[in-house]
Amino acid sequence: MAAENFEKMSTGNGNANGDGGFSFPKGPVMPKITTGAAKRGNEICHDDSGPTVNVSTIDELHSLQKKRSAPTTPINQGGAAAFAAVSEEERQKIQMQSISASLASLTRESGPKVVRGDPAEKKADGSTTPAYAHGQHHSIFSPATGAVSDSSLKFTHVLYNLSPAELYEQAIKYEKGSFITSNGALATLSGAKTGRAPRDKRVVRDATTEDELWWGKGSPNIEMDEHTFMVNRERAVDYLNSLEKVFVNDQFLNWDPENRIKVRIVSARAYHSLFMHNMCIRPTPEELESFGTPDFTIYNAGQFPCNRYTHYMTSSTSVDLNLARREMVILGTQYAGEMKKGLFSVMHYLMPKRRILSLHSGCNMGKDGDVALFFGLSGTGKTTLSTDHNRYLIGDDEHCWTETGVSNIEGGCYAKCVDLSREKEPDIWNAIKFGTVLENVVFDEHTRDVDYSDKSVTENTRAAYPIEFIPNAKIPCVGPHPKNVILLACDAFGVLPPVSKLNLAQTMYHFISGYTALVAGTEDGIKEPTATFSACFGAAFIMLHPTKYAAMLAEKMKKQGATGWLVNTGWSGGSYGVGSRIKLAYTRKIIDAIHSGSLLKANYKKTEIFGFEIPTEIEGIPSEILDPINAWSDKKAHKETLVKLGGLFKKNFEVFANHKIGVDGKLTEEILAAGPIF
Ligand SMILES: Nc1ncnc2c1ncn2[C@@H]1O[C@H](COP(=O)(O)OP(=O)(O)O)[C@@H](O)[C@H]1O
Ligand SMILES: C=C(OP(=O)(O)O)C(=O)O
Ligand SMILES: [Ca+2]
Ligand SMILES: [Mn+2]
Question: Is ligand 2 within 6 A of the CB of residue 397?
Answer without folding.
Answer: yes
